[in-house]
Amino acid sequence: MSEDNDKLRIDKWLWAARFFKTRSLAVDAVESGKVTMNEVRIKPAKAIGVGDHLDIRLGQYHFEIEVLALSNRRGPAPEAQKLYRESDASKARRAEIAANLKALPQPAFKGRPTKRDRRDIERFESATRPGRKSVWGDPE
């Protein structure tokens, strides 16, 4: 899990800690300011060490973590979670956001409309728009 050096590039560490699927996504996040170290904006090649504090914004979620170990190898999720410790406030905030998102109504449709659904849509459109004969808008 830990390597011989005391420092590691932040983009490699973020990838190994499974915050991002690829290193290029980690690089983009760091460059765009979604990842800060010790409340300072950084570059992807910045070396991090044990004890550094990172703020990571992924969509609506915000992680406040402390680096516990370094690894440039991407392993299983339980091993990756040993690389950092998330603050209690951060965990509570993320749980609250997840609960709010779960409470929102889910969309009623799933995937593409079936042939029957398309016929119903066409029937509805022709009834609500006078003179309209086709869904594709071919005027005749």
What structural category do the secondary elements indicate?
alpha+beta
Number of strands: 7
- The residue-averaged pLDDT reads 87
> What is the CATH architecture annotation of one domain?
Roll
CATH topology of one domain: Structural Genomics Hypothetical 15.5 Kd Protein In mrcA-pckA Intergenic Region, Chain A
Distance between the termini: 70 Å
Give the overall shape: elongated
SSE order, one letter for each helix or strand: EHHEEEEEHEHH
Instruction: Name the assembly state.
Output: single chain
How do you describe this structure in short?
With 140 residues, the chain is of the alpha+beta class.
